[in-house]
Write a structure and sequence with these properties.
By secondary structure, the chain is mostly helical. It contains 16 helices and six strands.
Length: 352
């Protein structure tokens, strides 16, 4: 009888112990789930992106997250971050926050630097290195001044075979995906990789077949681009300049004169402008100028590589002002076309 009571007593104690352990384990498991796996991002109509500076502290990260008001529970995120040692592992970058993300995913994303890329879009008609620096940093952490210093670093450019004169030939207009915190030096490296990819063996052989170096192709393409935005005419305009080069005739390209005068806004050049002493004055000096006068588009590069073969030596804007040009094989014909266009400028009061 006494033994039966003792067994019953120990059974009750054991049951209480097991129940306590189960409740404790359940509490731990519940806390663990709440900390790491419970959705901790509010419902979002669309993913949002946060930019975490490269030198950010954990407090900076929290400021960024709280500014977006995207976390359901600040405390559980901090607890998860500390458990995973995020303050010591935090990596700057641009991160995508989605509805229903849990702390485990959020912490892992920032700790491992699992960034979302940004689009780096470069268009043609960039006419100054300052403008190029601004375009390249439009969606980046780096500012335009640091990019400008990199783009004008002759030692860095020389390492990849370029200098300040040939810089525009390095840049190929397109849209590239890069990371938000990519350094200016890495951006230049990316530009060089894209340059090498574009100038494949076929294009290099084509450039050689028309007697131009890659820099000369880019230089002529930049002139063609400044002459016309009408793509069907680009190979024709390129052909005019190629004809002039072949017979040793000065290019007499107005855009190069505007570049020499540092004023692309001039709509009407005057005879006195042709006296400016600059290697970019193609009225004064024969041949191509030292380098591109703007960032040439892919279309103009192709227009030069596969220029139209014809006998035109002259062209001028059409008096219809529709973006097209009138082409001529001789000077007298060209002068008639030029007078017709000048009359239109006179009627509109365009003197400069």
């Amino acid at each position: 009888m006494k033994r039966s009571k003792r067994v019953r007593k120990w059974g009750i104690i054991t049951g209480f112990v097991l129940l306590s352990i189960m409740l404790s384990c359940g509490s731990i498991a519940s806390r663990y789930w709440l900390t790491f796996y419970r959705p901790n991002v509010h419902h979002l109509e669309a993913p949002l992106y946060i930019n975490v500076p490269s030198n950010a502290t954990f407090n900076t990260l929290m400021d960024v997250l709280e500014a977006q008001q995207c976390l359901r529970s600040r405390n559980t995120f901090i607890r998860a971050a500390n458990k995973e040692h995020l303050p010591e592992r935090l990596k700057g970058g641009r991160y995508q926050i989605r509805s229903g993300m849990n702390n485990k995913t959020l912490v892992r994303m920032v700790a491992l630097g699992l960034q979302s890329p940004v689009n780096l879009t470069i268009s043609g008609n960039i006419r100054s290195v300052e403008k190029l620096a601004t375009v390249l940093t439009r969606n980046l952490e780096a500012d335009s001044l640091s990019m400008l210093m990199t783009l004008t670093n002759e030692e860095l450019l020389h390492q990849i075979g370029f200098d300040s004169t040939s810089l525009f030939s390095l840049v190929l207009p397109n849209t590239y995906q890069v990371y938000w915190n990519t350094s200016p030096e890495k951006i230049v490296e990316r530009l060089y990789k894209e340059y090498q990819r574009f100038w494949n063996e076929e294009r290099r052989e084509q450039a050689a077949s028309i007697g131009l170096s890659l820099l000369q192709v880019s230089t002529l393409a930049s002139i063609v681009q400044e002459e016309t935005n009408y793509k069907p005419e680009m190979p024709t305009v390129a052909g005019v300049y190629m004809n002039r080069l072949k017979i040793g005739m000065p290019l007499q390209a107005d855009p190069t004169l505007k570049f020499a005068l540092k004023d692309f806004g001039i709509r009407r050049l005057l005879n006195k402008d042709k006296n400016v002493d600059s290697p970019y004055n193609t009225y004064k000096y024969k041949g191509l100028p030292p380098g591109p006068i703007c960032v040439p588009s892919l279309a103009t590069l192709e227009a030069v590589l596969y220029y139209e073969s014809h006998h035109y030596l002259y062209f001028c804007a059409s008096p219809e002002s529709n973006g097209t040009h009138l082409f001529a094989t001789n000077l007298s014909e060209h002068n008639r076309n030029a007078r017709a266009y000048q009359q239109v400028l006179n009627q509109r009061g365009v003197m400069r």
